[in-house]
Amino acid sequence: MFIKDIPRLHTALAEWMSCMILLSLVPRRLNGWRFWLAAGGSLIVMYVWLESTRPLTSVFWMLAMAVAVGLMFLMMLLLGRMNAVTTAYCTIRAFLLAEFAASLEWQLYSFFHHSVELSHWMISLFSMAVVYAAVFSISYFIERRAARGLPPPEMSWRELLSAVAVGVSAFLISNLSFVWSDTPFSSSIRQEIYNIRTLVDLAGVVALYAYHVRLYDLNSRRELDAIKNILQNQYVQYRQSRESIDLINRKYHDLKHQIAVLRAEQDPAQRAAFLDKMEEEIQHYEAQNKTGNSVLDTVLTGKSLYCAKHSIKLTAVADGEALHFMEVVDICTVFGNLLDNAIEYELTVPNKELRLIHLEVSTRRGFLLIRCENHFEGELVLHQGLPSTTKSDTNYHGYGLKSIRYTAQKYGGSMTVSKEDTWFVVTLLIPIPPA
Hints:
Layout: H1 8-23, H2 32-52, H3 58-79, H4 84-112, H5 120-147, H6 157-174, H7 176-179, H8 190-265, H9 269-287, H10 294-309, E1 313-318, H11 328-346, E2 356-364, E3 367-375, E4 382-383, E5 386-387, H12 399-410, E6 414-420, E7 423-431
Parallel strand pairs: 1-2
Antiparallel strand pairs: 2-3, 3-7, 4-5, 6-7
Helix pairs in contact: 1-2, 1-3, 1-4, 1-5, 2-3, 3-4, 4-5, 4-6, 4-8, 6-8, 8-9, 8-10, 8-11, 8-12, 10-11, 11-12
């Protein structure tokens, strides 16, 4: 039995285009001409490898395809800003999509080329252009719809193995007839072999797409749970700070009475000057962080004490009364995370004179404006509107800013992150509801 195989160029193009579809939806390591140069080089390498393995027997061809999958993995790892597990997952999905596209195109070509009075290469080129354009356009549309602007879902090794099992099973079953034609699951008839290959590959693509959507749902739930935990932790911190500050206030109140007693009992000039200074400091403490909102006062006071201990200068110009429509937990979340993120960075600044944080809360034209600035050195790289992390644990990093954005969106507002000169700036703009 002789079955004409799919041309290696068609297979290479299908694998390359599948990778490009998924790479178009993820952050990239390279941009501009460097990206297209590396992508073009990857296509050449794929084609050369597949063409060089043409003379191999069926069993060794399977090994050659495993190497081809490895080349797809290297391409996506080089060009996409993803970890190895996520890249492997995307590679499995891209490979199965490529197998389906190439199989469908060659099946249609094999069916029609006898009835069309055109040269072999013209029919082949036409069928490839039409089928690939249709398959990859539809694939791009549904992938983009599933992603909703989000990066590929973070996943564990166990979740990856499930995707690998689906991909490998679909590939082996779809190509079983090319290796062994005398099994209950294979055929020796050319048209049946083409049907089996195309339909099994399609089933694998659909199964992995359903799995992909499920992973997005699971990741969304994990992220929401993490944000809820942050909200709760911020509220707990607020309650603890409130208790500590109440205790401090009582101590200062007692101290004021002690000063009055001391002043009445003895009046040396030096002692009076010293007591005047103490009283002035107490009055300064009482006056600071009185914004008109007791929750914001508590958060600011707690963070101010921490900043003073670590040589960070925190200044705030805040109209706390503008926060009247926000819930206590949300105020804790926004300002607790804003200041925690700023403090975390400032602790890494060696020069203590440059450890600066400024907070502004005001109203402008019916909107609540919250702006937090802190001294920032280096380049700011954003993805999906949030800073890209350099930390190894990307799964649980960045939820502070995500929770702030989530809270702003809860009230119909928005959050933006930017760099202005040597300042890292987080700005929230929230519409103030009518009274």
